[in-house]
Amino acid sequence: MLNIALFGPPGAGKGTQSERLIEKYNLFYISTGDLLRKELKEETKLGLEAKSIIASGGLVPDEIIVQIIEKTITQNPESKGFLFDGFPRTYVQAYILEGLMIRLNTSLNCLISLEVDEEDSVARLLERGKTSGRSDDNEEVIRNRLKEYYDKTLPVLNFYKDRGIHFAINGANSIEKVNEDISEILQKELSKSLLNIVLFGHPGSGRGSQGAALAKKYGLEYVSTGKMLEAEIEKGTETGKKITELYESGQLVPDEIVVPLIEAKIANSKGIKGFIFKGFPRTLVQSYILDGLLKKHGSAISEIIEIQVPMLELISRLDARSKTDRCMPYDSSTEKIVKRLQEHETKTVPVIEKYNQQHGVKKIDGMGTFDEVFEKLSNVIEKGFRKI
């Protein structure tokens, strides 16, 4: 979920940017003024409470405003997130919003403020006043509104600066440049909430078929080193020829070949919910490489899963596969099958042990039908999504 607050003085262009962000990221727009007017019009319980307060000359208290916001959020579970325009306006409201987000098991990802010089704001609003017909678009009213904004907003900005989620954008730039700068911030925020799964298991455990099916079900990018290497072989590239030689001798493909392919996959995948890595990392060195690659792109490993299958069953499965059109170069003979399983024991099992100490590894029984194992894996992934 992507929750952002958009700030800026009158005339900064919040409305224009909000429209673009809502459409691009499928966010629900929360303007306390709009929501309050809706409650008043529909004469809801909260609307009637607010109406009586307004009728007596009072200001609608935060207690009612926060209930309206909570109601709106809970009634729109399909939204990918929420864009808050004009809230929080005060230091106290910042605490209120933080508490509300905690209660709803989420948080505000960032507060983005469009920085515009006071004179530029005045000029923009005066220009708007020529066509808007708004009585408040005159210089005296505009300057009073700007003073109120700066007096009340500074403590709010400091609140979020202290939490490290305040980002300032030069609002004097073109609409396209401002939108580009905001989008860059949001893409980094989205990358932090990716669900990145590392799927382990001996050759023959079903990692490949299960990983591909899970990726399809949950909108994850399937990163299979085997698939990428096969693609190089099919293209007939020099890299592909080297890979074929390594396969035929039963050796692992070196990092110099694998890592650039994986990094390109991570960098070029847009609008996804995360990755499922199958076949990488296979060694301790590769585990450090993967951590570095994900960190470079503002992300990290979320869950590590190992599909466990007894050794005799693995040998039986690989032997059966060697007699089909799904035969891989490294399981075309008993000798190669045994060598591959031994390599997994000596090189990959230490990686799993390392991750188990650092993060904890979810162990899944790989015996049973495809659907039975798939259900167990799905439960782990769904819990992972709830965490983030």
Short structural summary:
It is built from 16 helices and ten strands. With 388 residues, the chain is α/β, with parallel strands linked by helices.
Give a written overview of the molecule.
The chain is α/β, with parallel strands linked by helices. The protein folds into two domains: 2-27 and 79-192, P-loop containing nucleotide triphosphate hydrolases (Rossmann fold, 3-Layer(aba) Sandwich), CATH 3.40.50; 195-387, Rossmann fold (3-Layer(aba) Sandwich). Helix content is 60%, strand content 14%. It contains 16 helices and ten strands. It has helices at 14-25, 32-42, 45-55, 62-74, 91-103, 118-132, 139-162, 175-192, 207-218, 225-235, 238-248, 255-268, 284-296, 311-321, 334-358, 370-387, and strands at 2-7, 28-31, 81-85, 110-115, 166-170, 195-201, 221-224, 274-278, 303-308, 361-365. The strands form two sheets. The protein has a five-stranded parallel sheet, with helices on both faces. The chain has a five-stranded parallel sheet with strand order 7-8-6-9-10, sandwiched between helices. α2 packs across α4 (62-74) and α10 (225-235) packs across α11. 31% of the residues are buried. The model has no long low-confidence stretch (mean pLDDT 89).
CATH architecture of the largest domain: 3-Layer(aba) Sandwich
Write down the overall geometry: elongated
Helicity, as a percent range: 55-70%
What do we call the CATH homologous superfamily of the largest domain?
P-loop containing nucleotide triphosphate hydrolases
Spatially, the strands of the biggest sheet line up as 2-3-1-4-5
Query: Any idea how many domains?
Result: 2
Q: Roughly how many Å apart are the termini?
A: 8 Å
Question: Which structural class fits the helix and strand makeup?
Answer: alpha/beta
| Mean pLDDT reading | 89
Question: Could you tell me the number of beta strands?
Answer: 10
Order of helices and strands: EHEHHHEHEHHEHEHEHHHEHEHHEH
Beta-strand content: 5-15%
